Amino acid sequence: MTPTFKPLISVIVPAYEVGPYVRQCINAILNQTFKNFELIVSLRKDNKDDTISTVSQFSTDPRVKIIFQSGRGLSNARNSAIYIAKGKYITFVDGDDIVKKDYLQTLVVSMSDDVDIVCTLPEFTNHLLNGSDRNFDDRIGYFSFPFTGKHKIDTNLAIKIPVVAWGKLYKSSIINKYKILFPEGLIFEDNFFFYSYLSVATKNIVLSPKKVYIYNLRDGSLFGILKSRPSMGIDNIHILEKIVDFLEHYKCFQFETPKLYAKYYLDALKFSGGKFHREIDNCLYKLIMNKTFLFKLKFLFYFCKNKANFLIFIYFFILLMLNCSVKIFIDLSNFSFKRDL
């Protein structure tokens, strides 16, 4: 690859302990029908299997850049690659997945000046040790679009699209302008990246019906190990905090909706095993207390629509009423104090 080469697409592949899969992943990318791309493989030095030695065998290919991430975790691996990406567009592929030959072609032909992001859906290979896992259909059922084609980006559409980073084409200019990176130290990092990106994307989104990404559902993959535990719910609500900070920093208030808050709270409860959790409740309480009274009412409305969530409705109704009572008491006290003066 010559120093003046300017790839149109940067393909970013984080690879940590994916020795049995990474060769097939890289070969699938290098054999794409679309040729104008660079491949950045982001490695961790503490890989305990043969991932590093396998990836190193591709070092002579001028399209391949091999880097060692500066820290730990999937977010850091992707961020380290974003910093050096030269492509006008960026797409992510996980090191244990593969893509069809027309993956990049499918993405790039749908991108244009009036489109800011292209999304595709995956096919799945089920390599779970328990191949008949009864949750398999539930997991893959998450991956669907409400419709396909080109559409204006708005918050109602945004929360209906799978938030995973892979299988999509992003504009580097938007990522760099708004410094959109994956938050480190938390799971559900894709939620922040995707939702933040959509909130500042001013043009259209293309939802392609073509399934050109093949996700390897295995015991070591995120969807393979996804089990309810309190820490997952806590991470999920902290991701909401980061999303809200981003939206408020860039004044994307049209994306900061009661429905967004309700969705992340319900997800947090689900990941915590369906139980109330003090840290989750406190985080949401702090976020919502500064909102308008109408915002709070709309937030409550999402829970009273469903009988299964009625307890949540009662819970937050009491909290909000107590908060209003305290505010009224403080206001009356201040008024009385000033009058006495």
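[next item in queue]
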Amino acid sequence: MKYEARIHRNRADDSYINNLSNISYFTSKIFQYKIGILSFAENNLTDVTINEGVTTIGEWAFSNNDISSITIPNSISKIDGFAFAYNNTTEITIGNSVDINENTFYRNGSNSFKTFYDNNSKEAGTYIYIIMEVG
């Protein structure tokens, strides 16, 4: 199944690219890309890898899926609210110094990721969320 994305450059003309597989080509031609609001919401996605060159992930962009693993490239500087809400994320690979909205992972297995990432100086790496039973 082919998924469509609504991605636009951060300019007044808001030119759109509709095929996520073409992001790599276009990111070398245009400076900033944003994955728009609700772009991949409710698509039964399980793993997400965002291509280098995308700079922003919009509100609710990947919400209401079943995403367990997310790879966010170094080019991402901002993730808006609820972008990964209502998922079951257990692994996040992310670059340095990403500005994450406090509600980005709302009702997600990794709800506390933002706090942990911020407390670790927003250091790049792979973060794994493990639920441990006590007792």
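[queue empty]
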